[in-house]
Description:
By secondary structure, the chain is mainly alpha-helical. The protein is built from nine helices and three strands.
Amino acid sequence: xxxxxxxxxxxxxxxxxxxxxxxxxxxxxxxxxxxxxxxxxxxxxxxxxxxxxxxxxxxxxxxxxxxxxxxxxxxxxxxxxxxxxxxxxxxxxxxxxxxxxxxxxxxxxxxxxxxxxxxxxxxxxxxxxxxxxxxxxxxxxxxxxxxxxxxxxxxxxxxxxxxxxxxxxxxxxxxxxxxxx
Length: 181
């Protein structure tokens, strides 16, 4: 089964024969929403962010959860990776209505305390938030920044990237997905 070259860069560990037509369609849907969120019009960006983070229901169309279910992968992975892409493309959003993934919540609670989780949730829901804005609401936000735990600080703005890509050069999961082919 031969597929277009678009798949070849999508997941480094997969060959074209590893996915069936339905799975390829789900990957294509996810990729189109990620591309729209990064380079689309303002309306397309907003709709794609809603689809990725807020489980936007579109009659007759699969949700992120549907796509990830078919691909047998956690939808939180796409959401976390999207935060990394927003950071890499210097794109900020406000008021995303999506809970902090459990894995991030647990890691922050382990390394800091539950109060810091609230500031992490604020950053998660407002990628690209200006540090001054978060300091007004959360005194403990500095712990996330100072420890370079799951937040990246770029020119006074914060993104929840799961790992700071500037410090963790050995993380390979961010290299596995390419949404630009």
